[in-house]
Amino acid sequence: MNKVLLAKSAVITGFVAIFVLATVLALRPNFIGVRAGKADENYLQSENCQSCHQENFNSWQKTYHSRMTQEASETSFVGDFVTNNTLEYLGVKATMTRRVGDYLMSFAYPDGHTETNQIFRTVGSRRIQQYVTRRGTNYVRLPVAWDIENKRWMSLNGSFFYPDGNNFKQQEAKWDLNCVFCHNVKAQPNFNFQTAQAKTEVSELGIACGACHGAAATHAQEALSPFTRAAWHLDETANRSIINPHKLEMLDSDRSMMICAHCHGQRIPTPDNRIREILEQGDPFDAGEDLSQFYKPVHADTTVGNVSFAARFWANGSPRLTAFEYQGLTSSECFLKGEKGHRINCLTCHTMHEGDPKGQLIAEKRTNLACTECHTKLNDTIALQNHTKHQPDSAGSSCYSCHMPEVVYGIMTFHPTHDITIPRPDLTAQNEVPNACNQCHVDKSVNWAIQTAKNLWADKFAGAQVADDDQFNQPESVRMLFAGDALQRSLGAFALQKHASTDFSATYLAEAFAGENYPIVRFFAANGLQASHPDLAKPDYLADAENRQNQIAVWFKQMDSQKTREAKQLAEQLRKLRKDVDVEVGE
Q1: pLDDT value at position 587?
Q2: DSSP 8-state secondary structure symbol assigned to residue 160
Q3: What are the residues whose beta carbons fall under 8 Å from the beta carbon of 75, sequence distance 6 or more?
Q4: Dihedral pair phi/psi, residue 506, rounded to 5°
Q5: For the stretch 220-235, what's the b/e string if a residue is b when 16 or more beta carbons lie within 10 angstroms of its beta carbon?
Q6: CA distance 144 to 157
Q7: Interatomic CA distance for residues 156 and 108, integer angstroms
Q8: Confidence (pLDDT) at 23
């Protein structure tokens, strides 16, 4: 009797086990084949990664990458659509409003006609936030953005290197054909060249897991098995069917760096005619692949038709703009002298899941430790002082200050260059490449910096010659502020704000604001002025000419008249040397 019961129990148990197993298997998600036939086939959403990688998911959500592009929602908007919600520029009044859950940007033109745009997507969440509408099936970036740091609306004309004009929509842009490729995962514009309409698809809005880890369907499918997960935990080298940039770095650092270079190394397709395929079918690159098989990085000598990229680089080929970090690093001696596949790369300093989201650096990587891991002798304080000729705890002994100075423009500020170089004030005299010495010693001339370098490092600078041109006897920040092109003038104002005493800088910045025809230069000059007299109303760099002059007149009244006259005389002298070159900022 017992044997019969046991047999029946075993059979029932077996059927139940089979039923449960079949149910589990039936309910189990099937990731393989998602988006079949598309450029993003087998790419998953970041939420699919969350159940196993909660900690990494949480750290990614804290980054600006995660919020780079968002659908319009209550949580995505940073700009003020309620109270501080208007901008008047070039005679056009922009009004930003919220109506029954929709976010609108309306323009009232001088001739009386109006235009209202519904905002469907936001771009950015750190320094400025841009807004995207839809026209037909095309997505279009609107010309007005929210300045997050200054808490005001701004025309995007004021963030690029173009002079004052009368085109309110100068910086309106086709989102599908430009912004989409770096601010999202696996962009597919599906552009129709006959109708000039796009039907853009992306794997995921924003810079999400797929951007760095590639297609994850196979990995996720295999991870559904507890036996596979156990095997992975027991064997760190097991193939997990996913790209891990850190593990790839150990095998081939150059290939790992290409994951970042896909966006942080502005590029053009190779061959050139591949652009049509990309616009019609989508971005062919997947993380872990050889980027050079699809794209080539832009350099100073790159041209596309009649378009030259030379203005985006300093005369020595070093980048002037962000999104060229790959070009900067790969031209550095630190990179070139390293062993191929096992040398300095993005992950040497940056991390995607640790540290401060601003820069994605852990605390120690903001110090000299970033460099002394290799240059170990300079861990010694005496050796460091002998090397820098500056006090060990001063900016002059900071590796970043001297070898990665802030001479690269990106989104309303200047950033450290990734072209790791030795300070060369003589290059400034030769071809106006900015030097680290004068970025700190803003009240000193280039010739002072050359002679000081010769005195302090006699062997290294034995061949350096002071310049005969008298402009290089003027304080370099002031020379740049008036004699340089718009980017140099902006850099001069930025350096004065950051490193000069207000007693030295104020009159020059006021004169620069008063006589400047590039809004972006006025932006930096106004920021510097505000630091010198926080009690005075900050002059508006986007105001019309009459209002600007009235605003800056208030500042001049607070200044020493003799200093004001001297600043004006020097400015007039240096402005005669100016050669303006408009710089297209590809962000």
Answers
A1: 61
A2: S
A3: none
A4: -60, -50
A5: bbbbeeeebeeebeee
A6: 9
A7: 17
A8: 44
**pTM (2 d.p.):** 0.93
Closest of 294, 275, 276, 292 to residue 284, by C-alpha? 294
pLDDT in tens, 346-390: 999 999 999 999 999 999 999 999 999 999 999 999 999 999 999
* Assigned token pair, 152: 């005001």
The predicted pLDDT at position 8 comes to 60
Determine the residue type at 493: A
Neighbouring-strand partners of residue 94: 87, 107
First to last CA, the chain: 81
Cβ proximity of 417 and 319 under 8 Å: yes
Distance CA 374, CA 370 (A): 8
Average pLDDT across the chain, whole number = 94
pLDDT of residue 531: 86
Both structure tokens of 563: 């200093």
Place of tokens 């832009």: 298
Query: Is residue 436 a contact partner of residue 426, using CB atoms and an 8 Å limit?
Result: no
**Separation between Cα atoms, residue 143 and residue 117, nearest integer Å:** 11
- Strands 267-269 and 204-205 turn out to be unpaired
The label of the residue with tokens 């309409």 reads: 197
Provide φ and ψ at 184, rounded to 5°: -150, 175
Listed in sequence order, the DSSP H helices in 124-269 are 209-213, 217-223, 226-234, 245-251, 253-264
Whole-angstrom distance, CA of residue 416 vs CA of residue 220: 38
Q: Note whether 243 and 289 are within 8 A (CB).
A: no
DSSP reduced 3-state for 252: coil
Classify burial at 557, counting beta carbons within 10 Å of its beta carbon; exposed 0-12, middle 13-18, buried 19 or more. exposed
Q: How far is CA 396 from CA 456, 475, 486, in A?
A: 13, 18, 27
Task: List the chain residues with pLDDT less than 50.
Answer: 16-17, 19-26
d(CA 137, CA 509): 45
Quote the Cα angle for 75-81-84, to 5°: 130
Quickly list DSSP for 36-49. Answer: TTSTTTT---HHHH
| 501: amino acid identity, one letter | S
Query: Which residue bears the tokens 């698809």?
Result: 201
Q: Which residue has the tokens 């209550």?
A: 74
